[in-house]
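Throughout our pipeline, every protein is held as a single compact record rather than as scattered files. Nothing more is needed to write down the fold, since each code stands for a local backbone conformation. For reference, a complete record is included directly beneath this paragraph.
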Amino acid sequence: MTDSLSMLYLRRPWMARVDRATLGADALAGLTNAAIVLPQGMAFAIIAGLSPHYGLFTAIITTAVAAFWGSSSVMVSGPTTAISAVMFTAISTYAVPGTETYIAMALTVTVMVGMIQLAAGLARLGGLIAFISHSVIVGFTAAAAILIGVSQLGGALGVEVAGGGGVFERLSRLISAIGGTKPTAVVIAAVTLLCILAIQRIDKRMPAYIVALAAGAAMGWALDAPARSVAMFSELPAVLPSFLIPDVGPSQIIDLLPAAATIAFVGLLEAISIGRSFAVRRGEKFDANQEIVGQGLSNAIGGLFQCYAGSGSFTRSGLNAESGARTPLAAILAATFLLALLLILAPLVQYIPVPAISGIILYVAWRLINFAEIRHILRSRAETAILAATFLTGILTHLELAIVAGVIASLVLFLYDSAHPFVGVGAPTYVDGHRCFKNADRFNLPQCPQLRMMRMHGPVFFASGDAIEMSLRKMDAERPDQTNLILELKGTEKIDMAGADLLISEILRARDRGGDFRIIATYPGVLRQLVRLGVMQVLGRNHLHPNKTSAIAKAAPTLSEDICRTCGLRVFHECAQRPCGASNDDGPARSV
């Protein structure tokens, strides 16, 4: 309890690192971040089905609270594309985007997200996030990117298209309305998009979004966009966030609970992966549980001050680090500078054409798809299956179900792998002058006709018993004279009662066939399980060995001398001490 309460302590450890030098570096990084999030916050709020000012409020309140109570020195939280997309798809089922009901639901979900995350942080559940496959996040983000991009095509073309639905439903409505495309809107969106691309190629440290937004607004003014029926943004109804308790009934809260749980989960995955990534790069400590508490507080408090759910932003965090941020104060100053910019620039929002924001969002959506990581994942069949399950679910159904599908796919593949441990036969060979054991079948190595050296990787438990037994019977069929068996369990950490019964059965079977059975194991947990579950009572203490050398040295004298006399392989060193009267057509007997 004391550890959990310390997470909420108002005096944070990072405050001791703040001095005159760090203050200057953090102020510069904060100003740079404020410039980039001004157009980003507006764009992300639109993705979430909200007015632009909600995104700006989120970039102020959520950012400051998460930085203060979080664990990362440079991570910047706030509105993100993935959470904005999930927010829109989840809540638009119950209310029309932009309406008072929709806004109340969005703020309610945000508070619920914060409470779920806060509870998880105080319960110290941060370690569970590591069990989620990275492929789930990549697939989910790619699906969200396509959904976001498709949702902005209408704005870029200057046509009104009803919101809601999946990717194909949106595309169908867009195609039906394509005849109303306004060339002026297309030009404005194209100029904005091209401006971002050009600036990114010139210098990524420049505030590309705000410059591109200004270019789009200038093009709209030059082409007299309002006169050509191009949609413009309305003046912001509020510049400063205010305290507001959402008016939502109990039944609606129950309906919104699955959406809140999904958003909370996605947000934590984003924040922890980003925070841990930057901590590794900078050689800093990262406390996942403290970060969860910071994210939870930022959403719980933010939801009461007209913010919608936020999380860690990789783009803003990367920019923060590159700009020289030293402490979390940089993110807090970014929120402060944004508030000042908002007070100055709020009257100018009404001069921004909608296609300009659409151009920015299209670029953001494109950048969300990590093509390099996707190519890397495609090298693995298992991870490809997880990626495909997540991505296709997000594209073909509801985006919030994509995470669920990915987690289920990960769990199924994990269980399948656990139920099919590797069982292989090893044989000695030389690599760069050093003697070692390698897979006999894969490298076509000679095997002793009497002694089989086996290695197992994976748990020996109720679900893997059939697969293990099938592998062993296949080996028996291929080499029936190998009745003396050595099983190395160095790759095994779990043995349950069913697994112990299997090992006992194999020990008795080998001895019934006139051979013997030995086990190599050193892991204390496995040794305790072998004793507790009765395997050692059947095996015998003198048949348990710490390494291959010991096991082979004890097994070699028990092998049939008659077979050794006719064997020209001499696979093991110990074979040199065995009777030898054979030679083969290829030359004298050899020892490997």
